[in-house]
Amino acid sequence: MAKLLALSLSLCFLLFSNSFALREQSQQNECQLERLDALEPDNRIESEGGLIETWNPNNRQFRCAGVALSRVTLQRNALRRPYYSNAPQEIYIQQGNGYFGVVFPGCPETFEEPQESEQRERRRYRDSHQKVNRFREGDIIAVPTGNVLWMYNDQDTPVIAISLTDTGSSNNQLDQIPRRFYLAGNQEQEFLRYQREQGGKQEQENDGNNIFSGFKRDFLEDALNVNRHIVDRLQGRNEDEEKGAIVKVKGGLSIITPPERQRGSRQEEDEDEKEERQPSRRRDESQKGESRRHGDNGLEETVCTAKLRVNIGSSPSPDIYNPQAGRINTVTSLDLPVLRWLKLSAEHGSLRKNALIVPHYNRNANSVIYALKGRARLQVVNCNGNTVFDGELEAGRALTVPQNYAVAAKSLSERFTYVAFKTNDRDGIARLAGTSSVINDLPLDVVAATFNLQRNEARQLKSNNPFKLLVPPRESEKRASA
Amino acid sequence: MAKLLALSLSLCFLLFSNSFALREQSQQNECQLERLDALEPDNRIESEGGLIETWNPNNRQFRCAGVALSRVTLQRNALRRPYYSNAPQEIYIQQGNGYFGVVFPGCPETFEEPQESEQRERRRYRDSHQKVNRFREGDIIAVPTGNVLWMYNDQDTPVIAISLTDTGSSNNQLDQIPRRFYLAGNQEQEFLRYQREQGGKQEQENDGNNIFSGFKRDFLEDALNVNRHIVDRLQGRNEDEEKGAIVKVKGGLSIITPPERQRGSRQEEDEDEKEERQPSRRRDESQKGESRRHGDNGLEETVCTAKLRVNIGSSPSPDIYNPQAGRINTVTSLDLPVLRWLKLSAEHGSLRKNALIVPHYNRNANSVIYALKGRARLQVVNCNGNTVFDGELEAGRALTVPQNYAVAAKSLSERFTYVAFKTNDRDGIARLAGTSSVINDLPLDVVAATFNLQRNEARQLKSNNPFKLLVPPRESEKRASA
Amino acid sequence: MAKLLALSLSLCFLLFSNSFALREQSQQNECQLERLDALEPDNRIESEGGLIETWNPNNRQFRCAGVALSRVTLQRNALRRPYYSNAPQEIYIQQGNGYFGVVFPGCPETFEEPQESEQRERRRYRDSHQKVNRFREGDIIAVPTGNVLWMYNDQDTPVIAISLTDTGSSNNQLDQIPRRFYLAGNQEQEFLRYQREQGGKQEQENDGNNIFSGFKRDFLEDALNVNRHIVDRLQGRNEDEEKGAIVKVKGGLSIITPPERQRGSRQEEDEDEKEERQPSRRRDESQKGESRRHGDNGLEETVCTAKLRVNIGSSPSPDIYNPQAGRINTVTSLDLPVLRWLKLSAEHGSLRKNALIVPHYNRNANSVIYALKGRARLQVVNCNGNTVFDGELEAGRALTVPQNYAVAAKSLSERFTYVAFKTNDRDGIARLAGTSSVINDLPLDVVAATFNLQRNEARQLKSNNPFKLLVPPRESEKRASA
Q: Which superkingdom (chains A, B, C) (predicted)?
């Protein structure tokens, strides 16, 4: 009994005490937004193996939301060099497949090269490292504050990843500036130029811009016990700045991962915990399979084995579904427990032409909507009843919807898809129309008196729309679009 | 065993992970207050059915405390139209009785009209909605961030309600400006004029000022599947702005609620969970009874059935009581668990003439004291030993006492009553005089050395006042006031 | 079963709901630090019994970290008069031994004078007070927000205590200014002059500067039921300002504590819970022993019996130890549960000459390093790869290392010792070199591609340094220093 209590307590510890993430409030008046914009990235940094695009985090709507947005493109065999951030990140894989790793300091290196056969005994070094994860299109990846992340594209299709960095998180004890700490290279961190605009001092000239660059050589030689040549490489000395944060790996990476299964279906995902296979070392070329392994129940889910990704782009069981209107899928901390620390969640939606998302608001979060495909008309309304946005959101643009602001959307394309990043780990949508909406939850007479309606009109308001969040196009529109 | 653990875990989840509320800090130097004032409301907005008065939230003592204060008066048959806020609210009912509802999006509509008898079968629509609660004088009502609230006065006595909005709560992810999002009407939200003073942009002219007003008509027609007339009403088009946030309901509201019991006593409160009665639909005229129903134990207490009100104005068992001095009653998250999310608590006090509240301070909260009846002399001292307030607090005025500032009070009326709103969900008072005070908790020799006293003087300091927080008037004063 | 659940729930309550402490973020751009400095205290206030030195909290590196630092020296028989703060404190005892008390309002007075023998019956007053704790060199003491603290030196060796006040804690609901609320005396609180510099208003002249000074005499006479003379003493009237916050106790304090055991060893610490002895009243002269008593298991550990100190200066079982290099000891909320509320932790390190602390960063905390003995060379690097500090840290100076900034150190003395205060309750170090470092956690090929190295060079990087955080001096250096 006592043991049980102790256990239950320690579980509580595991779950709650580690690193609670709560959000900071925006600065005074930062959220008095009379106009929002659907924004494209405004900066572009080419690298050897790809491209990093950023949105200006000093834009008022991002400052209000306390977030920074960026988009990374990895070409085939491109490696995003390891880095960490001063704030939690949520990454959506818009396109492509590949590998990623998130380093948890202090956790064991659980991926090990197999014992060599005896004739090769002379080779003494056997590599081991922390878990390597496979990602694919439609994945959400959660990266905690200060944990090193790397990504790699082993496929022909370029990987496109959208990343939200939640600088307003209380996990960030620095100021609101998004910071990338690179472990390697000579490139500037992608948000640095915006700091400069903000009046930050001119950077001093320096060999290398990574976290090792600022140490003196002798410190590193002693700390790593390696020769000067290797230290120079670490510090990014003499490296071409153009090489950048994304490097090309000649011949591709060879990574220890479990063998993949050859299957065409994506449902494999739910099954891949059931089998265990011996790890092997091989070159990954163009497989589509999955290769994660993790403990899934509450007891095994420690920091070291925390699951960091979940697919929301193509789930066979979406949370909201109407064949005529579309589908919406959400990921919260109930789906991906690590989001409880990050205090982030996400939503993926896909709308058919002329289908509508009814007016609604986020009770407890700011939201950044990024359009993946097609275009839609969105309207956003503030507390004064003013339209702060009425326009199109097209693929590649992002729109911030602050907490409690009302928003509605109508798809203008055959298939409008989007991902929304939200600054809270639990969904808190309140709908303003349709079944189970806020209006529906009010007594009939309150509705009538509130809106100055006859009781039969109030009844229509409460009952005419039988749909919930998604409304299919009207018959006339369907024909028109057919 | 495993199940038990899982259950216990999920309970932890329920309790802690949902929406933790913590407070933001005040801006730099905001709390260097050398003078506090007992403030009256400085703005007054008349509505058809009542009155909203507000205190300027940009006043420095409210900015330091991170709160906004307002007072609402509802005449008979007046409905405060539904609205939600970007921050949690704590409402004290100074006078009157009535109904209120707080909408929890996603929760079921548990109040249903009964099955009609067969002869009336033609009537197809049966109304259902979320729980309706009865409130009465002395109640504290807790309203979470982003949840829609409505209130209704079905009695002859005007309802007067004092509301504290905790804009400094971390549940508010916008800036510190208090915002009301109205579901209906053409009135400005009550705190808008202060935003303008702060340099916010001039509002654009608009038909309607509610959350529906900013949407285009066709969006709403599609989303609600109703005709243009109803949409116009929703948007508050052509509605007289004078009608306002509080409307008069002709003939009164008809609300589904359990039948009330005819009892004179107020103790019924504690018993009304014991009985179940069949819901019925009726016009509420002037009953005084109670009509809530809710689950009370930890397992049933989910978000959907969370209890939102508790009476502190007239409890038969106050927390502190001295017949000669008065009584003090507190409500914390132990009394009303929903306050754990809101991170708010409250205190109600009633003092006899010349009775004293000894010098004390709030360890972990800011406090806003609102005088309900009579007047008292208060003194407040800051960390430099300066008197930042020494004056009278009379009925209808509010005084902010920042965290850790010391405060004492003496009633100047036969009955001085007040309510104090506190920005933490647990009580954290430290008393500076009387039994069990901070001085009493120190060793005798420490007291003597600290205050430069003889040991027998230190003994007097520790033991002369046998009372705790409330000190009755001295005999001489009693006679004088008799 | 139900009981068990209820119990487990209430434990959760105990642990989590009481007063969660999270940190505020720094103001806009506050952490764009291009240069850090190893700072000495810049103000010095002499008192009758000792000395308070402070660092300017408006210094940018402290503003970024959201902390204030001070150093207190108590001479023999000196009492630091009781005070409380608007933010949690972590105190490290650099030198000396003595007594301290932290008052928990509402908790019982558990230290009682014994029943007098019958012949002395005339003496009616028996003193009782809250727990008195013994501290010694190397202790960390945790003081929650708003709790009164006093300290006393009963030994010949002066007590030197370093205190970090975490004004960025969300337990502080006021602004970032560190405030001391003194219960007694006529001295200014030690951080007041920095407020003035910040443009705070000129202080009004006042008799006394303590929390009682601002109340009118008649209020205090009534509240305490004592005569005017005692009230004058309370208010610090006519007291010499020079007397100050630390007073000399003639003849020493007489405090109720359990009798001490005469032992030379310091291991006694771990045993002193096992025995119970009858409390006695005596003059403490120059004992070295221990005299705390507290409940230690989860069930008994309530607020009232929370353990507030732990020794990290001379633990026989350090967390990291290498006889050639040195030792590091940490205290987190796992060692001292009260730190979970304070959201603070600490680290104590001791390095041999030329030993190295490898480059590493704090994932989730700001850190303030205070050098206790000797000197070391430190380097700190920001996200742009710039060296923001490369210099010596010598005994008595403090250096701030912001979250995620990389830092390394090399001892220049035979014995360099330091204490680091961290603004999170759990350790979150990530090492950039050595076994189990971030580089080691990456796959070999990722290391090679990241740093543009041959695979065998990458192997060296991963495996050449067999040490973890501490690296012993090279052989050549050892000889040189021998």
A: Eukaryota
